[in-house]
Amino acid sequence: MTSTATPAASARTTVAARRVRRLPDRQTTDRLALHDLLDSELVGHLAVALDGVPVVVPMGFARVDGHVLVHGSTGGGFALRAASARLPVVFSVTALDGLVYARSLFDSSMNYRSATIQGVLEPVSADEADAALIALSERLMPGRPAEVRGTRRKEVAATRVLRLALDDVVMKQRSGGPSEEPDDGEDHSSWAGVVPLERRWGTPIASGLTPAGTPVPDSVIALTTRNAPSDRLE
């Protein structure tokens, strides 16, 4: 499942970024910035046109090397149909980092990072399925796979992992305060600035069938107590 971006892929990324017309100064082709965004968010939106009808579904995902991994049921689902028909899809991920309060509604904005990935979903081969499911689980619930029973064969058979190459990507981002100048004609006695958005995990709640006094597992403790400013999700 290892994959790295080829020179051709990097070229496509650059070409894709040049399609940005609105506020092109906010575009970036920095691969590390893309990886940071994908590694700090847990949910993206997968879009495809099926039978002439647009469909968009939020999905948990994980980045593994040069691909985004998603999964679904082998019993159906639009993602599997899109992969089987080799239809072009779009996968979008956005992180909202704060609201930007300017001295007018027109100039107010958001601090954000967003990426739109275009391509064709590829099924992960059967011999890679276990590793792919573990990679997804480790991304969404770090450390949890080692604490629970192994995945049963029928569960693996009922699940299909798909991947989308990070070859054709458009990424935009904004940071910093409101656009302002000393001579912009605005009343500077009116407050302007940024309200950062911070997220954190809450106190774990045991299920109804979990016996009282059952210790909270290490993976949950690690998730709810970590405090790393570089992590967008705390």
What are the key terms here?
6 helices, globular, alpha+beta, 234 residues, Pnp Oxidase, Chain A, 31% strand
Proportion in helices: 10-25%
Residue-averaged pLDDT, rounded? Answer: 86
Q: How can the largest sheet be summarized?
A: 6 strands, antiparallel
The CATH homologous superfamily corresponds to Electron Transport, Fmn-binding Protein, Chain A
Number of domain modules: 1
DSSP summary, beta strand count: 10
Q: Could you please say which CATH topology applies here?
A: Pnp Oxidase, Chain A
Shape: globular
Low-pLDDT windows of residues? 1-18, 228-234
Distance between the termini: 28 Å
**Percentage of residues in strands:** 25-35%
Tell me the number of helical segments per DSSP (H or I, 4 or more residues long). Answer: 6
Radius of gyration: 21 Å
Named CATH architecture: Roll
Which class do the helix and strand fractions yield? alpha+beta
N-to-C SSE string, H for helix and E for strand: HHEEEEHEEEHHEEEH
What is the level 1 CATH name? Mainly Beta
Organism: Agromyces flavus
Protein name: Nitroimidazol reductase NimA-like FMN-containing flavoprotein (Pyridoxamine 5'-phosphate oxidase superfamily)
Pfam families: Pyridox_ox_2 (PF12900)
Region (Disordered): 172-194
